[in-house]
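TA notes. Do not distribute before section.
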Amino acid sequence: MAAQRKLCMIPGPIEFHEDVLASMATPATSHVDPLFVPVFGETIEMVRKVVLSEKAQPFVVSGSGTLGWDMMVNLIEAGDEVLVVNTGYFGDHFAECLETYGAKITHLRAEVGSRPSNETIKQAVSTKKYKMVTVTHVDTSTGVLADIKSVAEIVKAASPETLVAVDGVCSVGSEEIRFDEWNLDIVITGSQKGLGVPPGLSIVVASPQAIEVFKTRKSAIPSYYSNWNKWLPIMNAYEARKPGYFATPAVQLIYALHTSLKQITSQPMETRFAKHQQVASNFRKTIKDLGLKQVAQCEECSANGMTAVWLPAGVSVPQLVPALAAKGVQIAGGLHVKHASEYFRIGHMGISVMEDDRKHIQKVVDALTSSLTELGYQKA
């Protein structure tokens, strides 16, 4: 089976380091075992280091990245106004989640491959008071990178009380995030993308301001599993190197996350940001040299952990994806509702980027180039 396994180069799950996979093989272990408690506590502390925060509160909970959206139930109350800076599929669905809890949503949209301008955002927050502004840092459907630093600056200048919530599912671990310096309030992610761990952990980082909003809300939290009243004491206990229990944590996944975070934080985060930017820039140049066009419309709005590429005439997703798979490389088709059949997506993050000796990126380029030729594509 190992010989038949394809290199997983979709925008998540990504390739996992052998040591991370070995950690998943940890024997059955109690979640209150004296050996596990400090591992979980140190994991929580390392999450802060990844987003460059000294004072934020991480939550590491069993679930997908989508559970992070659901945890906004701790901050949103029925009738709250929320501005969604929308760059694709995941902006739409983050909004849908918040609407479930009674939020009144205003969408700020841009054409596919672009992002709302700073001027548009400034105008929006100057004309209405919002409880929260959400922004998808990298929308996995389009590969568009949002300028979360500028978004936070604009929002906080207009309304310091407004919470800035970043969907970082496809950005944490591969894109620059400076939680404290940029005055962010929420960063949401999952284990399976830039953090390089199998799916199954939802990770949310909350600012002191967000925690204060949670603690002083007027209404009861209409959720049980997502409720921070349940989870905050657990996170605090493990970080204090004491056991706690609300719901059983995914012990083996936390061991795996601990291993991956040890690797990630063994060098400055700036080194990791720069390497992802360099590899992504080179990959975008390769796409251009092949005569192809990426979905993201500008260099500064292009993600560094993935690339979405418009299909050339005469080539379809059902042709291209299997062609690369036959060469041992798994890529993804499109996801945006209106254009899913018109483009494909490739991930480049984690060990595939940080460890050159693996030659993952080159294998993708070779497989893509030869597959396009086989399918009759010729550069104009």
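Switch to the second chain here.
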Amino acid sequence: MFLSARKKLNVMASVGMIVLCLLLIAGCGGNNGEDAAGTSETAVPPTAAADTKETTRTIKDAYGDVEVPAAPARIVVLDIGALDNLLELGVKPVGAPSILAPGDPYPAYLKNTEGIENIGSVNEPNLEAIDALKPDLIIGNKDTHEQIHDQLALIAPTIFVESLGITWKENLLVHAEAVGKAEEGKQLLEGYQTRIAELKGKIESKPAPLEVSLFRPREDKIQIYLQETFSGLIMSDAGIKRPEAQTAEGFSKDLTEEQIADLDGDVMFWFSRSNSDFEKIEKSPLWATLKGVQAKQVHQVDWETWMSGLGIQAVNKVVDDLFNYLVEQ
């Protein structure tokens, strides 16, 4: 009996030692996140992980990398192209300029401009008015606003595109990225490319190519618009043939009344801020000799879109006119 009891005690002691060893092993495995080297690997709580969400993004503009808010809420734009693009992207700026004089209405083709604070004109934005709006992002362009770039950057992160007009596609993508709408910007550009391909196909299907003239009557001269203009680029994208005098590189060329033949085309588009400037051309004895005039294919188009729009909404208005006058008539 004694030996049996002693054996029982030995067995119980052995079991106890095994249990103790298991507990010690478990304790070594759960050493508060310390590895063999003694470094801590404490897990980040879910709430702390959420707090690490980025509040800024880096955008490349005409000057280099610019850090902008991830979700800007108070945006000031300095030109109509940026205003046009942002509104189409569903983003309403708090401030924008008029085309010509401070306080002038925004272009009529733009919708949802109510409540946007006027900050002066495109050429002379009011820095005090911009500062008073407490923007968290400013969008402008180097061509027009280079001299005030540094002052603007002191007010808020400032994104500048290089230029306007023929760079409208690149500008759209920069504007979209700056306001966190990069994918939407790409979709708008793809929509344009689809429409312009359709227009090009319809124009190329015509029996003979049409030469299309583009000009602007002015008080003291006549300007023909060349390839490197906003509207000239759209016509080039559509494969529209231009008169020989309008195929040169550059923005525009000034004509005298004696050179009026350079305006001629099978179809003639003109725009001006003053209709009286066009009326002077009509009085020229050479005007009636133009084939576009004789065919009654002279059309006034909206200067706010063809000349000063510079954004995706204006682009689509120009394409509408090209469909209307070159395909559907």
